[in-house]
Amino acid sequence: MEYLISALIGYLLGSFPTGYLLVKSSKGSDITKEGSGNVGALNSFEVSKSKLLGISVLFIDLIKGALAVLLPIILFPQVFIYPAVSLIFALFSHCFNPWLKLKGGRGLATAAGGMIVIFPYLLVIWCLIWVIFYVMRKNIHVANIAATIFSIIVIFGTSGLATKYANPVPQNISELLITASIALIIILVRHIDPLIEIISSIKTNRKSAR
């Protein structure tokens, strides 16, 4: 029952279509049909041309992730798996929104909001890798994809340290590694389109260089 309650909490919170509602109400635009079609902070800003709106979407999506883990922690204290499950379902419903025909955001803000609470170690690792790749390539999507892939590798390589800095502390390392991997894979799946574009761009540049 605890798993079901946690999953429902996460799914309902994550499904709140922040970007869609704010852009629709302020600009009258359907964000799923403009720009990248992504229902997140970056596309909200690009479609609306409003920094305030973009920041508002980012902040609310962060809160969604934080609430998704805080509520299970309050209901079922000192157990890692329940808030972790809730965050996974929040990410899934945010990325594949049931109210928007499974269109959604890329999950980064929602994941960050949850990780701040239960797994700040992973968030720090992800951010550090992101900064390194952004400085190298000056491309947000390249940095997002690289940070997500390498974070999985780092977490597996430093599982003992990762477990130490999780809150609540997981009962075992497998519990932490599996839930963290699922969360990162969901984010990675939502970056398949930009990944394809990056690969196509690389191939085009190589052809033109010949």
Kindly describe this structure.
The protein is mainly α and 210 residues long. It has one domain. α5 packs parallel to α10. It starts with a helix and ends with a helix.
Task: Name some characteristics of this structure.
mainly alpha, 11 helices
Concise summary:
The protein has one domain. The N and C termini lie far apart (61 Å). It has helices at residues 2-14, 18-27, 41-48, 51-75, 81-95, 108-118, 120-137, 140-157, 159-164, 173-189, 192-209.
> How many structural domains does the protein architecture include?
1
* Helix residue percentage: over 70%
Overall geometry: globular
H and E string: HHHHHHHHHHH
Label the structural class. Answer: mainly alpha
Unreliably modeled segments: none
Query: What is the number of beta strands?
Result: 0
Q: Per DSSP, what share of the residues sits in E-state strands of 2 or more residues?
A: under 5%
Main β sheet profile: none
For the residues shown, what is the average pLDDT? 92
Query: What is the C-alpha radius of gyration, as a whole number of Å?
Result: 17 Å
Terminal-residue CA separation: 61 Å
